[in-house]
Amino acid sequence: MEALNVLASHGVRWTATDEHVLHASAGELFVRSDVFFPYEVQTESGHITVLFRDHGLSDAIGFEYASWDAASAAADFMRRLEERRQLIIHEQGASALEHAVIPIMLDGENCWEFYRHNGQEFLRALMQRLVDDDRFTCVFCSEVAMSGHARRLDRLRA
Prior knowledge:
By secondary structure, the chain is α/β, with parallel strands linked by helices. Helix content is about 40%, strand content about 15%. It has helices at about 1-10, 20-25, 55-65, 70-90, 120-130, 140-145; strands at about 15-20, 40-45, 45-55, 150.
């Protein structure tokens, strides 16, 4: 909470952390698809939107797909993305898809040096699949933070 307060006091409107932080913060009320929504946390310095990265998808890019051919990796990513979409529908209802977001964030390592051509082939294949698939829309985190559709979270536990 102290870190969020510092960020908010400097005008930061959104931040992100791992999905395990939301699970620790929500406790027994947590359901898996809860991580696919932005949350607004009120601090002494104002509110800040918190996004929770999809650990599995992010780590697939960071650690798994470098050894795959680009087309197969992109296809697997899309399969996993659809699994998350179906989970949201199952646990939250189809209307929840309007405000759901599946943050993909690498956690600091430079994975691209392990990819063929620094990941360009994979990223092109993935972006083309995302553009061609009307079930998904790519957005910036700042757009999500400004959408006005964040859920309220009273506290964030490290």
